[in-house]
TrEMBL record:
It comes from the Bacteria. This is GFA family protein. Signal peptide: none annotated. It comes from Caulobacter segnis. The keyword Calcium does not apply.
Amino acid sequence: MTIKGSCCCGGVRFELFEPPLMMGTCHCSRCRKAGSGVYAYVRAEAFHWLAGRDLVVRYQPRPPMRFNRSFCRRCGTSLGDPDSGRILAIAASCLDDDPGVRVAFEEYGPDAPPWEKPA
Ligand SMILES: [Zn+2]
Ligand SMILES: [Zn+2]
């Protein structure tokens, strides 16, 4: 069983050969601006591009910030960072199938904006 993922325009498609190791939500301002906050952590060996790798552009922040941000350059969908590390942080918002794993932790909770939760 594979878990499929794609961008908004459908140009970028990928699949996971196994469920994520874990999932977590980050509330920091950088994730918020990048348009993603929930990540599925996947072993690099379990990630496979199906289409559109040429559409993927990457933003590399200046140190000390270190997490790269990849996007589809046609539709802007935030993909997480599918290109670096042994454990990839994939934007869970791209997943088309239920990964079978649930969010287990949150990061930067105090940085969450006041409008994030229902008033
Ligand atoms: Zn796209
Ligand atoms: Zn973050």
